[in-house]
Amino acid sequence: MGNAGEARRAVHETGATRGTGATRRTGATRAGATPTGATSAGTAGARTIGLTKVYGSGDTAVRALDGVSVELPSGRFTAIMGPSGAGKSTLMHCVAGLDSATSGQVFVGDEELGALSDRRLTRLRRERIGFVFQAFNLIPTLTARENIVLPMTLAGTRPDEEWLASITSVLGLGDRLRHRPSELSGGQQQRVALARALATRPQIVFADEPTGNLDSRSGAEVLGLLREAVDDLRQTVAMVTHDPVAAAYADAVIFLADGQVVDIMTDPTAARVLDRMGELGGRS
Ligand SMILES: Nc1ncnc2c1ncn2[C@@H]1O[C@H](COP(=O)(O)OP(=O)(O)OP(=O)(O)O)[C@@H](O)[C@H]1O
């Protein structure tokens, strides 16, 4: 990476000012936003230092991530993009504690994942990380509400009803809570998945191609809601996507290529993201 890239990365790592891109649903400024995020002063939602992930060994070893140092700032929406095979999913899986680093460090808040026992890592994943997947991953036999509170049911904790009411209202799910997934549209199912991800007030929500199974209208709605979760609920969101329009909802885009961070774009627009992806080449 050249000096310009380093400069952009530095801007991101110290927290750039959030812009008001045309795609944003709200131009609201988050009260109390600080360079490193408002939710816990001086703490990133998550960050990596020299994160390297090698799959396999010997001749067949694949260096999926090669010394990635990056921050997902608290209370911000960060998109992760790059050509196919660049390491996007690997980065997300390592930061979410679903996969372990070969070397380097991963922090969620102040916790270094490599220092945690399996039990504490499982607990951190359950309590401090939310997931939204392309395939919704809802349990078909449970109602929307039961799906939303499932992480807490599994953990044996009680949901915060006030919080639940506020997120289901923000997500427009108030009158759908007794429905099963098969009785909901794709967009509604993804909103249930988003409510489930937000229900535990996680430190960070990871969204993996969250609009991949949705038509463009439902996709825009879900992206707008992720944006609102950041603006209104102060949630930290990281999203892997191939779609420049989706990336434009984020505050910043981290571009990966061949397992390395090659650029960080703040206040992205779909056109600028598309240009940058074109320059990176490869199949997106
Ligand atoms: N479990 C695994 N075993 C071996 N190699 C793997 C494994 N998972 C990923 N890889 C390799 O690591 C590299 C990065 O993969 P990764 O899935 O992170 O890329 P990606 O950017 O998410 O790609 P895509 O956009 O196609 O989903 C690729 O070369 C991939 O083949």
Automatic annotation (TrEMBL):
<dbReference type="InterPro" id="IPR003439">
    <property type="entry name" value="ABC_transporter-like_ATP-bd"/>
</dbReference>
<dbReference type="GO" id="GO:0005524">
    <property type="term" value="F:ATP binding"/>
</dbReference>
<keyword id="KW-0547">Nucleotide-binding</keyword>
<keyword id="KW-0813">Transport</keyword>
<dbReference type="InterPro" id="IPR017871">
    <property type="entry name" value="ABC_transporter-like_CS"/>
</dbReference>
<dbReference type="InterPro" id="IPR017911">
    <property type="entry name" value="MacB-like_ATP-bd"/>
</dbReference>
<keyword id="KW-0067">ATP-binding</keyword>
<feature type="region of interest" description="Disordered">
    <location>
        <begin position="1"/>
        <end position="43"/>
    </location>
</feature>
<feature type="domain" description="ABC transporter">
    <location>
        <begin position="46"/>
        <end position="283"/>
    </location>
</feature>
<dbReference type="InterPro" id="IPR015854">
    <property type="entry name" value="ABC_transpr_LolD-like"/>
</dbReference>
<feature type="compositionally biased region" description="Basic and acidic residues">
    <location>
        <begin position="1"/>
        <end position="12"/>
    </location>
</feature>
<dbReference type="Pfam" id="PF00005">
    <property type="entry name" value="ABC_tran"/>
</dbReference>
<dbReference type="InterPro" id="IPR003593">
    <property type="entry name" value="AAA+_ATPase"/>
</dbReference>
<protein>
    <submittedName>
        <fullName>ABC transporter ATP-binding protein</fullName>
    </submittedName>
</protein>
<feature type="compositionally biased region" description="Low complexity">
    <location>
        <begin position="14"/>
        <end position="43"/>
    </location>
</feature>
<dbReference type="InterPro" id="IPR027417">
    <property type="entry name" value="P-loop_NTPase"/>
</dbReference>
